[in-house]
Amino acid sequence: MKPSRPLNINSIKTSSDGAWEGDDPLNYAFQLLIVQTTLVLIFSHLVAFLFKPLGQPKVVAEIVGGILLRPSALGQNKDFLHWVFPPWSTPILESVASIGLHFFLFLVGLELDLSTIQISGKKAFGIALAGISLPFAFGVGVTLILRRAIHEAN
Question: Per 3-state DSSP, what percentage of the chain is helix, strand, and coil (rounded to 5)?
Answer without folding.
Answer: 80, 0, 20
